[in-house]
Write a structure and sequence with these properties.
Blueprint: H1 3-12, H2 14-46, H3 51-66, H4 69-82, H5 89-114, H6 118-126, H7 131-161, H8 173-184, H9 187-220
Helix pairs in contact: 2-3, 2-5, 2-8, 3-5, 4-5, 5-7, 7-9, 8-9
Length: 221
């Protein structure tokens, strides 16, 4: 098939793919918000001085990290139904992705906070800063950059894993590519277009976070 023929085919399905991309971006955004919020809670729990709280958080994190994301999606989707919680496939997918990636963000946050030198904690204590002030004014600014790079990579993984929700019947980008390929019998062309669109989303987010990191570094020196 010629190049013009491929572009013409892509043009025919551009609106469908745009709808799928919109759902993919929404899945990524909502899932990311949930993952970060839950990840912060888990990180705080893993750094808690109460052993029972640390133990619960550790079990959650280790279990989630050892379980494939697809299995977590199935557990949330079918598990909620068994409990009588009737969520749509979209929100079940958001919950599943958020719960799975929360464990990864927890370890990123915990690693960044624990990476701050002990001397910084002691200096904050010497200045008479309370625990909250020490965290906001001393620890978090120094932990930000060590957290940002692995967090960027994790966001990229989240974008790619939104394609897994096709098994739940969510009409995201991969679902539209699969439907188009079954109609046109041109799977290579359809999934190539989907791949280019995933790459575009990743590139936009990656460059934005890279710019943000450079901006923060400039203002720290």
């Amino acid at each position: 098939m010629g190049r013009c023929d491929v572009f013409s085919l892509w043009g025919q399905y551009a609106a469908d793919f745009a709808d799928g991309l919109k759902v993919t971006v929404e899945l990524t955004g909502y899932g990311l918000v949930l993952a970060i919020a839950l990840g912060v809670v888990l990180a705080a729990a893993r750094l808690s001085r109460v052993r029972a709280i640390r133990a619960v958080a550790t079990v959650y994190v280790e279990t989630a990290r050892a379980t494939p994301a697809l299995v977590v999606l199935f557990l949330v989707y079918y598990g909620l139904g068994e409990l009588g919680v009737l969520w749509s496939a979209f929100w079940s997918a958001v919950a599943g992705l958020g719960c799975f990636y929360a464990a990864l963000f927890c370890e990123i946050f915990r690693g960044g906070l624990e990476g701050v030198e002990r001397g910084q904690h002691e200096a904050a204590d010497a200045l008479g800063l309370g625990r909250g002030q020490r965290l906001l004014r001393v620890i978090l600014p120094q932990a930000f950059l060590p957290i940002l790079l692995p967090a960027t990579n994790t966001v990229a993984d989240l974008i790619k894993d939104t394609s897994l929700v096709v098994v739940l019947g969510v009409a995201e980008l991969t679902s539209h590519a699969n439907n188009a390929s079954s109609i046109t019998y041109r799977p290579m062309d359809m999934f190539l277009l989907a791949g280019l669109m995933y790459f575009g989303v990743y590139l936009l987010i990656s460059r934005t976070l890279t710019y943000w990191e450079a901006h923060v570094q400039r203002h720290r020196h």
